[in-house]
Amino acid sequence: MNIFFYWDNPANFPNAYSNNIKTAKAIHYDANIELIDAEKAKRICKEFHTDTGIRINLDIINIPAAKSDIVRLMALYLYGGWYLDCDLQIKRHLAYLSNNQDFVMFHRKDKFGGYWHTNMAFYLTEKHELALDVLKFIDRCFQTETLMYDVWSCTGPGAITAYTNLYGITKDNTLDFNEYFSGTGCVFKSIDSNTGTSWKYQQAFGILEGMSYNQFAMPKDAKHCNRLIGFLKHRKDKDIILMLKSHGELFITNKQFSNYVEELVSGGSEDLKNAATSLIHNVKRP
Question: Is the entire prediction scored with pTM above 0.85?
Answer without folding.
Answer: yes
